[in-house]
Amino acid sequence: MNLLFLLCLPIATELLDLEMSLVDKRKTGVHKLTEKQKGSLQEWIDNHYEKRDTPLTIAHPLKKPTVAQIELNDQNTIIHLSDTTHWQIRPKDAPIAQGWINPEVGIIVHKSTDSTFPILLTNTLSGSSIYAKEIF
Question: What's the Cα-to-Cα distance from 27 to each of 17, 30, 42, 64, rounded to whole Å?
Answer without folding.
Answer: 14, 8, 17, 29
